[in-house]
Amino acid sequence: MSVTDYNARLYEKMKAEQDKYRGWLLHQEPSEILNHTYEYIVGHNDGNVYPNGLISRAETATVFFRLLKDEVLDGNLLTSNTYSDVPDDYWANTAISTMTGLGIVQGRSTMTFDPKAPITRAQFAAICARFDTGKSSGEQTFSDIKGHWAEKYIERAAELGCEGTHFANTNGLPDPDHYTTAWDIYLIAREAMKHDLFMTICGSKSYDVPATNKSDVRELHSTNALISNWRMLGYLYDYADGLKTGFTDEAGYCLAASALKDGRRFISVVLGSDTKVIGGETKIMSFVDSATLLDWGYNSFTMQTVFTKDDLIQELPVSLSKQASAVLVHPAEDVEVLLPNDVTPDMLERKVTVYGGTALAPIEAEQELGEMTLSYDGYDYATFKLLAADSVSVNRFLQGKYYISWFFSKTLVKILTVVVLLLVLLIVIWAKKLRPQSRYGSRRNKNKGFRNYRGRRR
Fold first, then answer.
1. Which of 40, 47, 315, 410 is 20 to 30 A from 157 (CA-CA)?
2. C-alpha 411: how far from its chain's center?
C-alpha cells in the first residue's frame, strides 16, 4: 500500500469518527502534513508512559510543530539550521528548524540547540507566551525573576489579573511561598483557551511520537480522565474538551476542566482533592467534583436572547440638528447572554455610553454611536455596539457655532488668546509712550491764553 493510499484510508476513518479524533495531524513527513492527526504525545517502547518523566527540547519542538496549521507551515517550513547538534538527518531536524525559524522555540545559542535536554517550566511558559500577542508592561511582580530570561513571560501571566499567585521557583516543586488560587488558574486557562493550538493539545487523548533510527513509535496518553478512559474508567464527561491535571503529595489531585455543550462553555477548577470510596470504588475526587461543577453550571444557567439586531431599544439625544432631537439605536448584532435561570432579561440594568459624550449630527444610518452594558447584581453580562437606525442631517449654523465654541474651549487656545490680548495691550501702551510731543505744547494749551484775553487796559 502506498503512502498516499494509506493517508486516504486513514483520513476517511478519521472523518467517520470525528467526535473521537478532532482535528489532529497525520504522521507523515512535514511537507505532507494535513490538518488532521491522531495524537500529539506518545509513550515508550516498553508500553509505559512515565508521567513523572521529563520531555526533551526536541520532543517539545516536535509537538508544537506537528500542530501548526497549514497556512502557518506554508512558506515557513525549514529543513536546515545553524545548530551543530541538529544535523540534517536528525529525527527532529525539520521541527526544530521550522520552530526556531518562526521564533517560537530558541536554541541555547546560535550554534547549539541541546535537543536531548529536558525542557523547564520557564521554557515551556515562554513557548506558550510567544503565541500570545499581549505585551508585558515591564512592572516587576515576582522576587526571583529579575534578570531571568523568561521574566517578561512570567510577568505577562501576572498582568492577566493573577493576584493570588506567587512563584518561589520555576520547577513547581513544593515550597511555602509557591502557591496559587482556583480563580488565578481560571484566569490563566481562559486566556490560554483563546489559542487553537492550546485547545488542540489539551483536547487530544493521545499522541504518537514517530519512530526514529533509535526507537519505535512511542505512544503517550492524556491523564485527563474526563476526556480519556485509557488510564482509568468511570470518569468520562461527554462535553469535556480539556484541560490540565496536576498532582503532588502536598497539593493533592488538581484539575482545570472545560466543557462545551449547546454553545455554552464552562470552566471548572478543583484544587487539593483526595480519593474517596463511593459505592465500593475508590474515586479520584478531582474528576468527580469537576463533573459535578460542570453539571451544576449547565443546569443553573441558560442562554437567553435579550435583543435581536433589529430591535429599536433606545433613543439617544442628538445635537446640531433641527431635523430631529433624538435618534433611535439598535444592537450591531443579536445579543444572547448566559444568565442564571432565575434572572430574566427585563431584570438586567442597562448602561449606555455615547462616544464623545454626545451624538452629533450629521449621523448616517448604521453609524456606530456608542455601547450598552447589561449587568445584574454588580456583574456585567454583556457589552455591545449601538448603531443609528436612521440618518439625521446637520444644521450648518449650529454646527459652525459648535465648532467655534469647541475651538475656544481648548485650554491652549484660551492661553494663546490671553497672550495675544496682553501683547496687543502692551503694544498700544508702548506706542502711546513713544508718540512725539508738539514743540509748543498742545493746541489746547495754545488757545487757552487767547480765550482769556480781554484786550489791553487804557
1. 40
2. 37
> Is 91 in contact with 113 (CB distance < 8 Å)?
no
pLDDT in tens, 201-217: 899 999 888 888 888 99
Alpha helical stretches, state H, 344-410: 396-408
- What tens digit of pLDDT does each residue of 77-113 get? 888 888 888 998 898 899 899 888 887 888 877 678 8
- Of the candidates 46, 54, 72, 212, the residue with the CA atom closest to the CA atom of residue 130: 72
Query: Which alpha helices (H) appear in 121-235, and where do they start and end?
Result: 121-129, 151-159, 182-192, 196-203
**At residue 239, what is the residue type?**
Y
Q: What is the DSSP string of 280-318?
A: TEEEEHHHHHHHHHHHHHHHHEEEEEEE-TT---EEEEE
Break the chain down into helix, strand, coil percent, rounded to 5. 30, 25, 45
Cβ atoms < 10 Å from Cβ of 149 = 11
Q: Average of pLDDT values for 247-271? A: 92
With residue 335 as reference, give the H or E element that holds it. Answer: strand 335-340
Q: Considering only CA atoms, which of 15, 26, 43 is closest in space to residue 222?
A: 43
Number of neighbouring beta carbons within 10 Å of residue 239: 18
Q: Identify the pLDDT of residue 385.
A: 93
The per-residue b/e assignment along 341-358, b for 16 or more CB within 10 angstroms, e otherwise, is eebeeeebeeeeeeeeee
The number of residues in the chain equals 458
What does pTM read for this prediction?
A: 0.53
